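#onboarding

Welcome to the new folks! Below is a worked example of what a typical request in this channel looks like: someone posts a single protein sequence, and someone else replies with the predicted structure as tokens. Don't worry about understanding the tokens yet, we'll cover that in week two.

Example request:
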Amino acid sequence: MFCMVVSSLLCLGVLQQFFQDGARIEAAFRKYFHRADVQQKEDSVEFIVCHGNVIRYFVCRALQLPPEAWLRISVAHCSVTQINIHPSGHVSLYSLGDVGHMLPEFITR
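Example response:
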């Protein structure tokens, strides 16, 4: 019985962390991924350094892909992903997990 209680408490902790992290990641998506203001005259660029899972989430969310698409995406450590949001709201994925700037022996996943 003790093992079941401990196991249940651990699961609750993991679920609680999941929901806290999920809300934080969604808030970051809403902060950085949006159309430019109509008065904006020049391009704006945001550099976001984050965990690969967050990158995968941002890509799926920006491209309006189903959540299970996340499982089919892989990004290497220190890779570069470029998402462009045009004034019309059209979203383009220019690069995903690009590692062309790295020597092959340093590429890991």
